[in-house]
Amino acid sequence: MKFAFVFPGQGSQSVGMMNGYADLPIVHETFTEASDILKQDFWAMVNDGPADDLNLTINTQPLMLMAGVAVYRAWTRCGGSKPCYFAGHSLGEYTALVASGALTFSDALSLVRFRAQVMQEAVPEGVGGMAAILGLDDESIQLICQEVTNNAADESLEPANFNSPGQVVIAGHRNAVLQGIELAKTKGAKRAVMLPMSIPSHCTLMRPAAEKMQQQLENTTLRSPDIPILHNVDAQPHHDAASIKDILIKQLYSPVLWVETIRAFAHADVTSVAECGPGKVLSGLNKRIDRNLQQLSLTDSEAIKQAMDSLK
Question: Terminus-to-terminus CA distance in the chain, angstroms?
C-alpha cells in the first residue's frame, strides 16, 4: 500500500491544537527544542494563547512547522512506517523538507521565521489581501484576475491557491481583490469572501520577499530528500539542493498547485493520504479532489494509532 504525508500551513492553527497529543512526550520535547532555538515559549502560546498572538504570521509560520514536525516525530516514535511521498501546503513544504531529511529542524525554524518577516515587510499593512472564491472553475478565475488587472492602474490580482475543484484563493492589491470578489459574484460564484490575512501570499507582490529569501537560502545547507516531495510550484519532485532552493524562492510568488499535487499522488498509485498535524483542512480539500483516496487526519494520539492500523 502506497501512502503520502501532507503538512498543513497557515490557517490550521488554534489555541489548544496540541492537546490531543498530551500523552506523547516527543511532542512537548519538539516544542521545547524549537522554543530554545527561537528564544520564545511556543508551548505556552499554543496552549494558553491569546489567539491574536497565534495568528501573527511571524508566530504562525514557525508554530505550524514545529507542530507538523512534532506529529511526524510522534508517528515515527510510535513505530509508523515511512510514506512514499511528502507534500506541504505553502509553509507546510518546509515541514516536508525536515521530515524528508533535506533540511535540519533548526535551519527550518530560522528560515520560516525569516520568511514570515520578509513577507510581512514586502507589503504594508492594508495594501494587500486574499479572498476565497467558491463555485467557479479555474479558467473563470484566471479571466477574472486578468480583467481586474487590465482595468486597474498599477494594481494586480492573481490566483494564489488552487485548493480544490471550485475553490481558488486569489491575492494581490486589496482594492483589486475587492473588485475580484464583486466580479466573481456576477460570474456566478457561490461564495466570494475576503480572508483575514494581511499578507497577499503566492503572488507577484511577494517578489521582494523572494529576493531576500534567496540570499538567506544561499547560506542554508540543503541535501537531497530521503523521500520525494511534490512541490507547490509544479507538483513535481526536486532532488538536488540547488533545485530545491530555486523552487522555495519561486513558491513565494507562484500559486500553490494543490489539486495537481493530490492528483499526482493518485497517478503514482498512492491510495492513502495522511494529514500530519493539527486540524483537517487539507483532508477536506483532498476529499474534494479525489474521493478514491483514503484520507487520514493525525489530529491526536488516538488518530495516529488508528492510522497506523489502517496502513498496515
Answer: 8
For the stretch 258-294, pLDDT in tens is 999 999 999 999 999 999 999 899 999 999 999 999 9
Where residue 126 falls (left for φ over 0; alpha for ψ -120 to 50; beta otherwise) is: left
Q: What is the DSSP string of 100-139?
A: TTSS-HHHHHHHHHHHHHHHHHHS-TTTEEEEEEES--HH
Distance CA 77, CA 79 (A): 5
Which residue is associated with the grid cell 523552487? 247
Q: What is the secondary structure of 142-199 as a DSSP string?
A: HHHHHHHHHHSSS--EEEEEEEETTEEEEEEEHHHHHHHHHHHHHTT-SEEEE-S-SS
Catalytic residue among 202, 231, 238, 254: 202
- The answer to whether residue 90 is catalytic is yes
**Contact predicate 227/84, CB 8 Å:** yes
Residue carrying C-alpha cell 501570499: 201
What is each CA distance from 83 to 101, 128, 289, in whole angstroms? Answer: 13, 37, 20
Q: Which amino acid is at 213?
A: M
Q: Which amino acid is at 181?
A: I
* Nine-digit cell string for 264: 499526482
Three-state secondary-structure class, residue 237: strand
Residue 228, helix vs strand vs coil: coil
How far is C-alpha 155 from the chain's CA centre?
26
pLDDT in tens, 206-221: 999 999 999 999 999 9
- Sheet order of strands, 167-173 included: 157-164, 167-173, 128-134, 191-194
What's the predicted TM-score (pTM) here? Answer: 0.96
Considering the candidates 12, 35, 90, 156, report the single residue annotated as catalytic: 90
Which of 33, 26, 28, 24 shows the shortest CA–CA distance to 47?
Answer: 28
Question: How many beta carbons lie within 10 A of that of residue 197, not counting itself?
Answer: 17
Are 301 and 20 contacting, i.e. CB atoms less than 8 angstroms apart?
Answer: yes
